[in-house]
Design a protein that fits this description.
This protein is an alpha/beta fold. The chain has two domains: about 5-235 and about 440-460, Aldehyde Dehydrogenase, Chain A, domain 1, CATH 3.40.605.10; about 240-430, Aldehyde Dehydrogenase, Chain A, domain 2, CATH 3.40.309.10. Helix content is about 40%, strand content about 20%. The protein is built from 14 helices and 19 strands. The chain has helices spanning about 20-40, 45-75, 75-100, 110-115, 140-155, 165-180, 195-200, 215-225, 250-260, 280-295, 315-330, 380-390, 405-415, 445-450; strands at about 5, 10-15, 115-125, 130-135, 155-160, 185-190, 205-210, 230-235, 240-245, 270-275, 330-335, 350-355, 370-380, 395, 400, 420, 435, 440, 455-460. The strands form five sheets. A seven-stranded mixed β-sheet has the order 11-12-13-10-9-15-16, sandwiched between helices. Strands 6-5-4-7-8-18 form a six-stranded mixed β-sheet, sandwiched between helices. Strand 9 (about 240-245), helix 9 and strand 10 form a beta-alpha-beta unit. Helix 2 (about 45-75) packs antiparallel against helix 6 (about 165-180) and helix 3 packs parallel to helix 5 (about 140-155). The longest helix has 30 residues, at about 45-75. The protein is globular and about 70 Å long.
C-alpha cells in the first residue's frame, strides 16, 4: 500500500509521501537509542511536565487534528474530536499516576528475612527503544495509549503507523517534539510494511507493540520471537453482546446500535455478535433493526452524520464478501446489506443486520470490520455462554442482565479480556485493556500497561 492520504469520502488521493530511505531509518534508530541513554535517567517530575505540555498542545490542536483524521480514515468529525479529547485525558492521567504505578515493590518483612536479606525490592526500569506498529482506525488514540505510558516509564518510541494515515502519523511525531521531549524520544517512521522486520531486528530496538490484524500480529510476533524481544499484541475482535430476559431491553438496544457502529463499525472492541435470549429476542431484533436503519449515512464532516465511509476500498469489499456469503448460505438481511443508493463516490456501506446466521457462513467466525451486526437466538444462559465463546477471538464482551447470578456466571466463563455489564465496552487509562485467544496478549493502559515495557529488576542486599 502506498503511503498516502486517500479520502474515503471521495475515493480521491489527496497527498502522497515518499517512504523513509535506509539512511533516514538509520538516523532515527541512532537518535532513539541515544535519547534513551539520557532520557531513562530523567525524573518522573520532568517526564510528567513534558507529557502535560504535549496534552495541552493536543487540546489546542484538537479541531485541526480531528479534521485530519476524518479526512484520512472517514470517522465522523464529532467522533474524531472525542478521540483527541480522550488522548488528552490519557496523557494527563499518566502524567499524574505513572510514578505511583512504578513505585518499588517490597515484600513483607518476614519474607525479606527469610530471603537472607536486609533489603529486597522490585524496581521497574525502562526497557529501551520500543517500536509501535499502529492501525488506522483510531489513528491518534492507539498511538497515545502506547506513547503516554511508554514515555512516562522512561522508554523512547518509534512509530510505524498505517500507510493511509500519514498526516496523523507525522503530527504525532511533531507533537512530542513541540512539547519539549528530547530529540529522538518519539519519532514517526514513514516506512512501508516490508521495512518493519529490519527495524524490529535492529539490536537497538528492545521491544514492540502492535495493534492490528491477526496476520500482522503473527508477522511481528514471529520476528520478535526469533530475536527474543518482548511484544504486546492487540489484534481483532468479534465481541459478543449478550442480552438476557431480565435486561432493560430498550436501554440495551440504544447501546447496541452505538456499540456496533462506533467508528463506522471499524473498532476491535465494537459489539459484533448479538446473542439474545429467546424470551426477548423478537423485541430486541425489531428495535435494534429499526435503530440501525434510522442512522444517517453520509459525509463524515457533517455534524448530522452517524456513519461515514469505510476507511479503504478493500475494507468495504471484504465486508461485502462476508455479507454476500452469509446471504448465499441462508442468512436474512433485516436492514442494509448494500451500498447506499445514489452514492457513486466513496466507500460507504449501509448499517446492516443479519439474522439466521449459522456456522456455514464465514461471518460466523470472521471479524466484520464495518457496520454489520449478526443476530443469534439462544434458549438459556448455557447456550449464551457457548455461543459467546464460539469464536477464535476474545477481546471484550457486553452482558445485559439484572440478575447477579448471571453476572457471576459470565464473569467466570466468558473467554474475553473484558466483561462490561449493562454498558458499552470502552477503554479508559485506569483500566487494563487487551484480549485472549487470537485477540492477542499483554495489556495496555493502567498499571499493567505501563509495566509491560519495563525491566522488573529484583534488588537484594545481604543481611548484616
Amino acid at each position: 500500500m502506498p503511503i498516502a492520504t486517500v479520502n474515503p469520502t471521495t475515493g480521491r488521493t489527496e497527498r502522497t509521501f515518499d517512504p523513509l530511505g535506509a539512511e533516514g531509518v538509520e538516523q532515527c534508530l541512532a537518535e532513539a537509542s541515544a535519547a534513551f541513554a539520557d532520557y531513562r535517567t530523567t525524573s518522573f517530575a520532568r517526564r510528567s511536565d513534558l507529557l502535560l505540555r504535549a496534552a495541552a498542545l493536543l487540546e489546542e490542536d484538537a479541531d485541526d487534528v480531528a479534521r485530519t483524521m476524518t479526512t484520512e480514515m472517514g470517522k465522523p468529525l464529532a467522533a474524531a474530536r472525542a478521540e483527541a479529547a480522550k488522548c488528552v485525558k490519557a496523557m494527563r492521567w499518566y502524567a499524574a499516576h505513572a510514578e505511583g504505578l512504578l513505585t518499588d515493590e517490597q515484600p513483607a518483612e518476614a519474607d525479606v528475612r527469610d530471603a537472607g536479606a536486609s533489603v529486597v525490592r522490585a524496581r521497574y526500569r525502562p526497557l529501551g527503544v520500543v517500536l509501535a506498529v499502529m492501525p488506522w482506525n483510531f489513528p491518534l488514540w492507539q498511538v497515545v495509549r502506547f506513547a503516554a505510558p511508554a514515555l512516562m516509564a522512561g522508554n523512547t518510541g518509534l512509530l510505524k503507523h498505517a500507510s493511509n494515515v500519514p498526516q496523523t502519523a507525522l503530527y504525532l511525531g511533531e507533537l512530542f517534539h513541540r512539547a519539549g521531549f528530547p530529540r529522538g524520544c518519539f519519532q514517526t517512521l514513514l516506512i512501508e510494511s516490508g521495512a518493519v522486520e529490519g527495524v524490529l531486528r535492529d539490536p537497538r530496538v528492545a521491544a514492540a507493540t502492535l495493534t492490528g490484524s491477526e496476520p500482522a500480529g503473527r508477522a511481528v510476533a514471529s520476528v520478535a520471537g526469533d530475536e527474543v524481544k518482548k511484544t504486546v499484541l492487540e489484534l481483532g475482535g468479534s465481541d459478543p453482546f449478550v442480552v438476557m430476559p431480565s435486561a432493560d431491553v430498550a436501554r440495551a438496544v440504544r447501546t447496541a446500535v452505538q456499540a456496533r457502529v462506533q467508528n463506522n463499525g471499524q473498532s476491535c472492541i465494537a459489539a459484533k455478535r448479538f446473542i439474545v435470549h429467546a424470551d426477548v429476542y423478537d423485541e430486541f431484533a425489531e428495535r435494534f433493526t429499526a435503530g440501525m436503519a434510522a442512522l444517517t449515512v453520509g459525509d463524515p464532516m457533517q455534524e448530522a452524520t452517524d456513519v461515514g465511509p469505510l476507511a479503504t476500498e478493500r475494507g468495504r469489499a471484504d465486508l461485502e464478501e462476508l455479507v454476500d456469503d452469509a446471504v448465499r448460505h441462508g442468512a436474512s438481511v433485516l436492514c442494509g446489506g448494500r451500498r447506499p443508493p445514489g452514492r457513486e463516490e466513496g466507500w460507504f456501506y449501509e448499517p446492516t443486520v443479519l439474522s439466521e446466521v449459522t456456522g456455514a457462513m464465514r461471518v460466523d467466525q470472521e471479524e466484520t470490520f464495518g457496520p454489520v451486526a449478526t443476530l443469534y437466538r439462544v434458549a438459556d444462559l448455557d447456550e449464551a455462554v457457548e455461543r459467546a465463546n464460539h469464536t477464535p477471538f476474545g477481546l471484550s464482551s457486553n452482558v445485559w442482565t439484572r440478575r447477579e447470578e448471571d453476572v457471576d456466571r459470565f464473569v467466570r466463563d466468558l473467554e474475553a479480556g473484558g466483561i462490561f455489564v449493562n454498558g458499552m465496552t470502552a477503554s479508559h487509562p485506569a483500566l487494563p485493556f487487551g484480549g485472549v485467544k487470537r485477540s492477542g496478549y499483554g495489556r495496555e493502559l493502567s498499571g499493567h500497561g505501563i509495566r509491560e515495557f519495563c525491566n522488573i529488576t529484583t534488588v537484594w542486599r545481604a543481611a548484616d
